[in-house]
Amino acid sequence: MTERKSPTDRQSLLSEADQLMEEALALLDGAQAYLPAAKLDEALSTLRLRTNTNGS
What is the chain written as a DSSP string? Predict the structure, then answer.
């Protein structure tokens, strides 16, 4: 059986996930010099889509 999380636990997890997504976006932005433009655009688009989906 799965353990139910309290609202504060959920909010804490969501906050942590948001922070990790922001860090990932910053890392991808910094990787521009190392990744081909098409791969970078694909990675950023995917991450932003997931960020927007998780935020709703």
Answer: -PPPPPHHHHHHHHHHHHHHHHHHHHHHHHGGGTS-HHHHHHHHHHHHHHHHHHH-
Read off the amino acid at residue 28. Answer: L
Q: In the chain, what are the domain boundaries?
A: 23-55
Q: 2-18 b/e with 16+ CB inside 10 Å = b?
A: eeeeeeeeeeeeeeeee
pLDDT of amino acid 19 = 92
Quote the distance between the C-alpha of residue 3 and its chain's center. 24
pLDDT tens per residue, range 1-56: 456 667 688 889 889 988 998 898 888 788 777 777 778 788 778 887 776 766 55
